[in-house]
Amino acid sequence: MKEDVFPRTAEFEGYRLTALGGVRLEDLTARFGTPLYVLDRAELIGRMRTYRQAFGPDVGVAYAAKALCVVGVLQLAAAEGLHLDVASGGELHTAARARFPMERVLLHGNNKSVEELEYAARLGVGRVVVDSFSELDRLAEIAKRTDHTFNVLLRITPGVLPDTHGFIATGQDDVKFGFTLSAGIAHEAVARVLAFDRLCLRGAHCHIGSQITATHSFAAAAELMLSFFSDLRSAYGIHLAEFNLGGGLGIAYLQSDVMLAIEEYADALLGAVRSGAARHGLAVPRLFVEPGRSIAGPAGVTLHTVGTIKRVRGARTYVNVDGGMSDNLRPALYGSRYTVCAAGPGYTNALMIPFTVAGKHCETGDLVAQDVLLPDDLAEGDLLVTAVTGAYGYSMASNYNRLPRPAVVLVGDGHTDLLVRRETLDDVVSHDLPLVRS
Ligand code: LLP
To answer: How many CB atoms lie within 10 A of CB 2?
Structure first.
């Protein structure tokens, strides 16, 4: 069923998606135009709640802002009691604008600048996840200069390679992130932190990758990390209070994708951490997780308007829409596949035939989805909807070919909130300065 990959409030008439959050799609496009990112409030909040319930009150669930970092979404995450993972000064600034409680914010990044760290100190972010020795020195210097104490976690790469796209696997040794566990570098990092007065070591962090569809890699990472915790107790007599296992739960983009439920993932992680702690005779550390994709992804869809249709004899029929790789880079960057269907009002009894949906950018690889079944009477001006674009869609959007970035709206209970207004052509050129001397 197509419904499986669409948000929970999706309403269909035959094969066409007609409404989301109680709002008819033609009303949305009449008000906001296309391309348009639409977020289903019930799906977004529902997923945040499922995470909190599945992990229970003792686990910190930090929304990974990189999946979709806009003020309105961070306000919802704050109201739902989530923590927040930010990975740059820009994401931190968005959190500040959303008045996210700073004690619940974690700052990440493999190359944080002095300005970013100073900003974190000024705002009083709850935790900094330290990625390198240079960062430790910078942080210690800022702490001293500003008389600020940072709570820190160390980002450890445990040496686990999960089964996912190579670009988004992050837990192996050969990677730019963190302190390598196997080479003894992680131990050295602990010794260094302990030497600084104003750096308070709260725990360790690992994030093995994203779009992971099985539990065994998470369990393997948990075991390696807890064995590290145990070694630290022997070497330094310390017990790390917090263990952050990162994000990474995969989601279904196609109806045929079989995925773990949030509850199964939570049970597997909790089980691995409890049994690992017991095996090593450790008190169970406070667990944190950082889901991004599995919160925002299934809550969002993208609406496009069909502009031109090109039939290539003996090959495909291309449907060219008014966006593409500038509003969703994932097909071009990772070869990701998506579910597309007809949307808005129209006849519902047409024959379904395969089309390739392409964008409007100057690249052959600018495809939204290949070989998707759409009605044979599809015409210019019709609406198409791509499912599961809530995560890493808007957040990786660009102005390629100087396309203005689309608006983002949140729909629920028949009501629409504009979270991000559509860029204008003037916005697109607003940072350009003409040559004074030509
Ligand atoms: N924590 C850390 C430290 C991370 O680096 C990430 C994602 C997350 C949490 C959230 O992971 P999630 O639950 O969303 O899988 N642009 C790529 C995904 C990059 C993920 C980067 N880090 C994509 O579109 O697939």
So the answer is: 17
